[in-house]
Amino acid sequence: MTHRTLVRALLTSAVLAAGVMLAGCDSDQISLAQNAKANQPVPPKLVAAMTEKDMDMQSPILVRLFKQEAELEVWKQNRSGQFALLKTYPICRWSGDLGPKVREGDRQAPEGFYSINPSQMNPQSAYYLSFNTGYPNAFDKALGRTGSQLMVHGDCSSRGCYAMTDEQIAEIYSLGRESFFGGQKAFQLQAYPFRMTPVNMAKHRNNPNMPFWKMIKEGYDHFEVTKQEPKVDFCEKKYVFDAVKAPGATRDPVFDASAKCPAYVIPEEIASAVHEKEQRDAAETAKLVSKGTPVARLNTGIDGGMNAIFASKIPEGNTGLSEGGDSQALASMSLARAPGTIPGTVNPPKPNLAVQQEEPVVATTSSTASSAGTRVASANASDKSAADKSTSDKSEGFFSSFARKVGIGGTADASKTTAPAPAAAAPAKPKVAEAKPQSVVRVAPKAEPKQAAKPAPKPQVTTAAAAPAPTSSTQLAGSAPVVQTNSFDTRFSAVK
Q1: Pick from 121, 26, 35, 123: which is nearest to 410 by CA?
Q2: Stretch among 53-57, 74-78, 154-158, 387-391 having the lowest mean pLDDT
Q3: Active site amino acids
Q4: According to the 3-state scheme, what is the secondary structure of 133-186?
Q5: What global pTM score does this model have?
Q6: 3-state secondary structure of 130
Q7: Which of 28, 73, 391, 496 could form a disulfide with 64, with the two C-beta atoms 3.0–4.6 Å apart?
């Protein structure tokens, strides 16, 4: 292990020396390559787990995110060539509602399939470490969806992102880094509203986003039956998974998200296995509906969610739209150790007292699978859009420079930031809803929290006669801008 580390250090030094000659002794590039946070080793316990599961340190990874469960999964390829679950991380904070991101400022964390290449990794994020999800992808763009700088990062603070603790993102970042060391060009990120099980599909059967969710469930099923990263293409404003050229075709099909689908087929062994799973799931879903499975309530006034393990550590903590939010469940977790440090200040999900009243936004998918309803995009007028607070705009950076030279493009424009619209004065609200504004809760580790002030009455306790007060149409940026993203590959070009 020591010899291997020494060899890698020597090779990295050689690459750095060559890079300095090409870049004119750019000290910023050297500091990026030596960034302590981005170069933390994979923890020994995780290394042991890889050994137990017959995985190589530098084998490919795949990431899955689930909003309702507030969990992030890291899958890793084992020596048999299949992906196996390495570790599940509870998500400290995600924002928005269940459903895809539609436009800049809707505070939605994205859903769908995205590709993360080295240039999307940001070692200088002020949210400790981060990587760009790649939103919007070709499918999102074909539908005219907008948004930028949607990240997975640390600091447990979200404005349209998936936020972990600093310790968690350090581990996830190191796993991505090692997969790039091993030659993986990009790892796949799959983001879902919930685990695509018959129970959840039955509960959310009336949600207007269901056509979109059924479409991405196809990709979920492809991965479930093959344990291989599904190949993702887009055409006719829809996702296509594991497509190959049709029999007799002389070249691979060319896909365009906005154009007509080319001739293609799905390998029979995959298509039949997926079809069987879909039939089983559909039958089970129908059975659950016939038995009266309750329909999940639409909670558009709550901004996102938090895993119960984190909510249990915060005075008046709430899981929001995530599962396990009842007081009994939180109390049972209060003595369990949180997986990482919760920041001194954290904004747990709470009912939004300033729900934006505006024209409904329909989350359409395609002409053949359009949304069955509308979803109102809400924004919390008391929150300001948070930038990714990084201060490295001055140079292109060591990682991004090499990514550009070898043709690996980033998905984020570091010079682009979206300023929030000026906040208009909100009209007076009923006294009950105005009782107390949402506040930031401070967590003091290893000490008894101070007696919290009496919480504000929830919006639903207002009388039926009281009409909801109109609110401003202020729209906030739903993302966390970062500096120019960077590429790992520069450090290792000498060994390729």
Answers
A1: 121
A2: 387-391
A3: 153, 161
A4: CCCCCHHHHHCCCCCCCCEEECCCCCCCCEECCHHHHHHHHHHHHHHHHCCCCC
A5: 0.71
A6: strand
A7: 73
